[in-house]
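User: Round two. Same drill as before: sequence, then structure, for each protein.

Assistant: Same drill it is. First protein:
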Amino acid sequence: MELTVHHTFLPHDDPDASLAFYRDALGFELRNDVGYQGMRWLTVGPADGAATSIVLHPPAADPGITDDEKRTIAEMMAKGTYASVVLATSDVDAAFDRIQATGAEVVQEPTDQPYGVRDCAFRDPAGNTVRIQELR
């Protein structure tokens, strides 16, 4: 059996700001933009045609989420503790410089970690942590 990652989901609270970050700062392409009942789901992914995509979704779209859960999710997103994604690149320093130049919020400059990777981190407009590791 062979399994691959097809989609992963990250919440957004401003689809236009999220699209600008993932498209303009990270260089991803917009693959789908779906609106329904005043909400938007954006599917983005690497412009090289890789099959893996990130679906940016409204966090309260699940009808089973209670009002208390919605408040908790909003609070966690505001603190940057709700969701994250780890991306990879062959040159983390060049990626950091390019992304930082767009005005993206820096969480961590490129650092050699004690567990053997070199990485950096940003926060997207919804508060999600976007960590970028260098492929070795």
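Second protein:
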Amino acid sequence: MIRKLILCSTMLCLLSACGSVESPEPEEQPLTAREALIQSLPPVEIQLKEITPESLPTEIEKHRGKVVFVDYWATWCPMCLDSFHHLSQWHQEYADKGLVILAINLDEDNESNRKSVIEYLTEQRAPFENFISTVKPDAVRDEKYGIEGSTLPFCQIYNREGELAVTLGNVNPDRLYGEVSIADALTKLFPETDSAENAGK
């Protein structure tokens, strides 16, 4: 009888202990490289300026003496969104050395799209100059901007003399838009960066 009482008491204690154990909280997922980069940036108030193919040369000329990276993107372009955070990465790496990024959105210009674009840029904490094209989206507009094949993403990189040095897109297999090809182009346009790094080694 005593054994039964002890056994019952032990079982009750075990059940009570099991019931009081709290469920472990789910572990937080580590940040992706993109999320970590964005969170490392300070929040910014986005100024979405208007631009046309005719006014773009003036914007580029404003930065004569610097390397100007013109990036064309749209919210409907998955590849643009996947790579957009790299613009911030290059801005962080090269802005002090003379890089200016002009990000030009090519969504149709209306109130709803402007709101969406500003929200996206705010989420991305885009620290560079941001524009929206006010020209009706069609092949003629894209040709005036110099966008090969009217395909995105597409970028143009101008050297310090204001000359078009590099174009990267999705048409010419030798000049495909991508993280590696852009990083390589920037390295060649900022050779003093490599010299400084090598001197410090």
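The two ends are 81 Å apart (CA to CA).

User: Perfect.
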